[in-house]
């Protein structure tokens, strides 16, 4: 379960509260991608 | 999420950006981030993107293999992606929250 280290991160484009973001646009930076079950809960 | 927010400057200091994702609609992400923000203080805004994986529902969560098919939402998890776009660390949290200190330590090891 969950992608493991050593493979390329699947690229994505998503809408956010700050506008659209594309993972591959952040190449050159380390990116911490966090998933949570539901907003307005523990987050 | 709250831990990321409290430590955002420390992540920035190690050349890291944060993207937080759930399967909620973007209107919910806007409302949620606004609810955490003192509207009279611009510096209090949530500075990293809180993204909506609502439609196609859970598509990105599925791509990272953290979609909970029973509940229709994302499993609590974190992936550290390096400057070349490779996954270098990942974890699924079943009964705890991501710890910023641990993540910062892992980033410093890259």
Characterize the structure shown.
Chain A is flat. Chain A starts with 12 loop residues before the first strand and ends in an 8-residue tail after the last strand. Chain A is an all-beta fold. Chain A has no helices and three strands. In chain A, a hairpin with a 2-residue loop joins strand 1 (13-16) and strand 2 (19-22). Helix content of chain A is 0%, strand content 33%. The mean pLDDT of chain A is 94. Chain B is α+β, with helices and mostly antiparallel strands and 110 residues long. Chain B has a single domain (2-96), classed as Glutaredoxin (3-Layer(aba) Sandwich). Helices cover 33% and strands 23% of the residues of chain B. Chain B has helices at residues 2-6, 8-13, 26-35, 59-63, 100-109, and strands spanning 16-22, 50-52, 67-68, 73-74, 77-81, 87-92. In chain B, the strands form three sheets. Chain B has a two-stranded parallel ribbon. Classes of the chains: A mainly beta (43), B alpha+beta (110). Chains A and B meet through strand 1 and strand 3 of A and strand 1, helix 3, strand 2, helix 4 and strand 4 of B. Strand 3 of chain A pairs parallel with strand 1 (16-22) of chain B.
């Amino acid at each position: 379960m969950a992608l493991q280290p050593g493979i390329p991160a699947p690229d994505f484009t998503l809408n956010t509260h700050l506008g659209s973001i594309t993972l591959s646009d952040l190449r050159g930076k380390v990116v911490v991608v966090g998933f949570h079950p539901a907003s307005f809960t523990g987050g | 999420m709250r831990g990321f927010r409290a430590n955002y400057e420390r992540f920035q200091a190690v050349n890291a950006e944060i993207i937080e994702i759930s399967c909620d609609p973007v209107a919910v992400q806007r409302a949620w981030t606004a609810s955490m923000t003192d509207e009279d203080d611009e510096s209090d805004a949530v500075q990293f993107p809180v993204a909506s994986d609502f439609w196609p529902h859970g598509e990105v969560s599925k791509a990272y293999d953290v979609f909970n098919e029973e509940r229709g939402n994302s499993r609590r998890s974190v992936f550290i992606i390096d400057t070349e776009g490779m996954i270098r660390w990942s974890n699924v949290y079943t009964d705890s929250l991501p710890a910023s200190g641990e993540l910062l330590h892992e980033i410093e090891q890259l």
